[in-house]
Amino acid sequence: MNGSHDRNSGLVANRRQFLAAAGAGLALSFAIKGARADGPAFTIMTVGGTWGDAIRKIICEPFAAKHGLTLAFDNRPNAQQLAVLQASRGKPTIDTIELGGPRLGQATALGLIDKIDPALAPNIKRVFPALKDEFWAARSIAPWVMTFDKRVFSKEEVEKRGWSILLDPKVKGRVAIPNFGWMGEMWLNSVNQAAGGSYDRLDPGFELASKVIKENGGVVMISNDQGLKLFTTGEIVAAPFWSGRTIELQRKNLPLDFAFVKGWSPYGFGFSVVSGVARPDLSQQFVDFSLSDEPQLTFARQFAYVPTLQDLKVPDDMPDSKVSAAAFDLAANLDYSQVARFSDSSLERWNKQVVG
Question: How far apart are CA 308 and CA 141, in angstroms?
């Protein structure tokens, strides 16, 4: 993952799209009372569902107990989150936001997040250099891989054929790809990079996505929870998905496996400080707590993701939270500030060519 993000990277924001998206749906917001909470609620923005529940229990509630805070959560799909920050610029209603991928590049270029202060968030110094920049640090790596039903394909076949396995007639009508506003933009760029394409020309990625949907009966996944459901019910037997979530389904005796194909993505996610917040030091401390040992190991154990602290020893009973050097040789290495420059045109092309 390339950590170079420039606020002046040339991203042209479409404010009309931002404001329209901000009003497109209601956020799920609720408060948890903390002891001795004197000030306003500390508000965290992330996606909801099982992922949001884990963030609340593993990171937010311990942090609130330590600082005597009332918590509030603004849970929205990824595609809506930056719209809210853009619409509330100058008087933000959010104290911290979980970011990763193209949304991180956009938030940085638009000046919606502040730099992390190492004096207030010293754990950022421990994060691998490739997994952080001045505005953000990943607290976990979630491998975005090729998940498949072992009764349909062997692992060797998937590793050899890569993403093109999604076009196999054997999975017609039982295959899925991620929605653009969820993980689709990152996946398109990963596929494209593996095929030798550039950020401004995503022809290989769009060609594959279009064929999956229009020629092989594919469906579009919009969330982690939908993907889990589709695999659990057997409605799909192949899709780009998380390695950790695949392992979660394996533990429920589903006949699934995954492969690190060329162009898989070591997706990192972590919290940032929203620009202009009333209590920036508190937001910095929250970022620091989220990067600390216990939250990282707890997330890794629950979701089989990979911690990001250079000096953190992953226990031997957590082999799924380790990725080999050979696998990393096949990984995409995306510069999300470059991805963000072409987000609007890529979304327009997605709507016309893939789902239109």
Answer: 7
